[in-house]
Amino acid sequence: MDYISCGVEDKSRIAFANALEIAEQYRVKERMIRYFFKLTIESKMATEIAFKPFKPLRSEGNHLEDRIERIRTMIAQREYEEAIDASTELMTVTLAGFRYLQTCRFVEKVLIIVTIGFS
Question: Looking at the domain assignment, is residue 3 inside a domain?
Fold first, then answer.
């Protein structure tokens, strides 16, 4: 944000737009992981091994949608500095979520190999 030459209001909107982009990419990746887990895990295994959502974006009051709505409210209430901080935090958390989902993607590949091996 230090490199952008504009007012704090515009900076808050830019930070929020960036956070929304990353959040949408996270949502898409999470949907893909959920879909692949449903396809690859047999019903018996599904009770033992299941996809677990990334807790920092699914815990009470911290759902991705809750965070986004809070930032929207901050901008509407002209709390621009707080909105920038919240947007930055949201970007950090969703990027951590990407790393978590990458781990799930690895587990999913292992499950495919194990499932094929036992077929």
Answer: no
